[in-house]
Amino acid sequence: MLIFASGLIAAAAQSPLPLAIPAGILILGLGFKNLKALYLICIVLIPFSTEVQFGSLGTDLPAEPAMWLLTGLGMVYFLRNAKNIEGALLRHPISIALLFHLTWLLLTTVTSSYPSTSIKFFLAKLWYIIPFFALTTILLRTKLDLHKVILAIALPLTVVLLYCLIRHASLGFSFEDVNQAMAPFFRNHVTYAALTSIVLPFLLVGAFSFRQNSWWRYALLFTSIISLVAIQTSYTRAAYGSLFIAALYVVVMRLKLTKHALILAMALVIAFGTFVVSNNRFFNFAPNYNKTVTHTDFDNLLEATYKLEDISTMERVYRWVAGSYMSAEHPVVGFGPGNFYRFYKGYALESFRTYVSDNPEHSGIHNYYLMTVVEQGWPGLVFFVILFCTGLITAEKAYHRTKKKSVKLAIIIFSSSLVVNLSFQLMNDMIETDKAGPWFFLCLAGIVVLDLQNRLDGSWVQEVKSEIPSVP
Predict the structure, then answer these.
(1) What's the CA gap between 453 and 174, in Å, rounded?
(2) Full-model pTM
(3) In total, how many domains does the chain have?
(4) Which 8-state DSSP code applies to residue 130?
(5) Structural domain for 180, as ranges
């Protein structure tokens, strides 16, 4: 009866949205009965999710409503089981660093230059942190749990990638038509490459956590090959660079050089930033408006990139210059989370303007670290850097503390995926999107669990099942 009534309402409203009511009720019931099943379903939905606009409200269906539901049920779970939550989880350095990051985000929401946007941003942050960090520390306790997560992303991703590759093949794998081939599951080739690159460690490294010669190992290796083909034909420079950095990081971690690598990376960034800003050298990067155009051939794009004639790269520079001026005006608390777009054009320089600077799609600054400074001030960036540095350093310590191959593989999965995600943010601002955000917090949570189990009881084995009380 409910399905029939929803169908009538949908027909009358000429909208498919009412049809989601029966599905929502069923998923809600499942969540109360089995929280882990809803968690895995949420992961399954991520590759299928697509952006939908309802007037001024934009969301990603069906993944974000599932995240909202998981957030609500997660809060109920933690309230009812507060006494049973291990204190070690709350006292872990990554958890503490995340709490400082979130607290500063709330403070800058209160001081925001446009509070309504910042409140939405803060709430969106919660439906990434609660399901994918807090609940992950409870629901992902064994090797078997990790296998379920791997399969929950591998199976739907394979379907979506094959769909996109077939569509792209019908277009001759054209660089010009790459965004068309990604519809409707991805906004553009960058989000397509981001999700595929970020989860590749779960597929490729994860395959070797399954039994040798098992069907699942071969299936995951097949999906890894499909993923590499998808990344190659996405023509996304950030994906190529991010995977290289992640592979380099694994070597660095094995050599116990993570701290040194992080210090070196920060020193290089500070040195480059100081050099560019001093004596206004950044004006040397101003583009030639008539020569900075969109390229329809990938080889031409690569050539145009180092000649500073690629429109996507130079549009980033246009926004980065505006962002630097914004950060100078509000260095402590920034303009408030989510507010870069609302204010940046007033700080942009005409000499850096490109053909796409009108920005009708309301895209952001395309550098998550600079965006954090602009919206949350320099302390916001410091808290974020402390968060991911704590995660990577903890991963290295846990890797060298254990002698179990399964634990080492799991640490490589979480830490290398985290590095891919962080590297992507150098040229994008995607941590608050459904394709990248869940994996950032899930990887941090996975490192917390492995570190604690490694130091405490070492229960990360195939046969042990994690019995998690369902939400009453």
Answers:
(1) 48
(2) 0.89
(3) 1
(4) I
(5) 93-461
